[in-house]
Amino acid sequence: MSPCEPLPVSRTELDSSEISQVALEDFDVTGNGFLPQDQPLNVLPDSYYEPWERLAKDLPLLLQEQTLRSRVDRLPVLSINHLKTEAEWRRAYVVLGFLTHGYVWGGDKAAEILPPSISVPLLAVSNHLSIPPVATYAAVNLWNFRSSSSDFSDLDSLTALHTYTGTPDESWFYMVSVAMESLGGRALIPLLLSSLQSCSAKNSPSLISSLSEITARINEVGVLLDRMDEHCDPSVFYHRIRPFLAGSKNMASAGLPRGVFYDEGNGKGEWRQLRGGSNGQSSMIQLMDVVLGVEHKVTGDSNPDRPGHGDGGKEMSFHQEVRAYMPEGHRRFLAHVEERWPGGLRRGVEGLLEGTAREEERIGLREAFKAATDALAGFRNRHLRIVTRYIVIPSRQGGVGQGKATKLNLATASSKLAKTEEKEGSVNAELTGTGGTALLPFLKQSRDETFRAGELRR
């Protein structure tokens, strides 16, 4: 199927226009994009789960007092049979994900064994949702908010349901992503799909208009990202919040050389190395890549650790690998768009340029497409600037706000590495992200690949 073949007709309408689209509800895509249509549950309705809820509510205090592990160790293994709706399954996943990372990282050194009281129900809930048993982007962002407004892009109305630190900094850090997801879902998804429709109809003026709107909306999402500084202090983030977001993949220097053993009791269990939550798991960002035709390499710094493998042993890029950490419907949606329109708008626009006789139209298409890809690359540049302020600079400043000097976690390991490289005259090229990648090389290459997408071959 060509990248510009007409969109399939279905029962769901994109808007009041004549544009037909895929049935978004079949992929758990809502009017808020990849966020739920309604606010997530803030408590499991069945009192049977009160032991989980109590620990989640008291999590910041328990971590501060370093009593979470002893409390979890005394926790009974609760059955998942009382979970009924998908909202309840998601709520259980959020609670258990936070308790997991709190248990692993909530001491002077990382806990390598996760006890059955968390492992058993978390594995079952994760299996039901088809998402890894770890605190993913979905757990800490998509399903972890409340709002005093029906507009989830209103950042000032949002609050995180759960945090590790109890600080407004941590809540704000998560809610910036929630607001961006909501704005992107409401404004960008319709535009991205309508741009494919315009391409399929060989309607260059309509496509140019859609691309111009896409550029404007990406920039609006970037403005939300720029608000991070308002209520999130870099030192608080780096030393107090970020360590809890780390996964167990590539975390040997932080105390998890083998990952985490998920103890299922009775001699059963498995060592797992899983990525922590990161913005790389945002389906919104990947959808923009897919529609615009941004290609991310399998080899090189975009995937500095050993590549993952898909069916048949084929190597995957980091971007492909982390789709497994997205909600199941969302990753199906990305695969659906990718399969129906291989190469996305980049290939489609190149085809239109070849068949368009009017020079004015060709120039307009080139400029509009380049502006859209530049806007996405610019968004990634904004992210790089935040990474510099919130990770690179604090890593060089040492233990301010770090608490006990003997603690070993992602922050202390990264700071030690930064100081070593500084003495050797190198740069922080190997600082590790919470998702387990070499942070700066990955982000820079993703940005550069986005810029290159705007360099059309025709």
TrEMBL record:
Signal peptide: none annotated. One of its GO terms (molecular function) is metal ion binding. GO terms for cellular component: cytoplasm. GO terms for biological process: 'de novo' NAD+ biosynthetic process from L-tryptophan; L-tryptophan catabolic process to kynurenine. It comes from the Eukaryota. The keyword Translocase does not apply. Keywords: Heme, Iron, Metal-binding. PROSITE patterns: IDO_1. Heme b binds at residue 383. Belongs to the indoleamine 2,3-dioxygenase family. This is Indoleamine 2,3-dioxygenase.
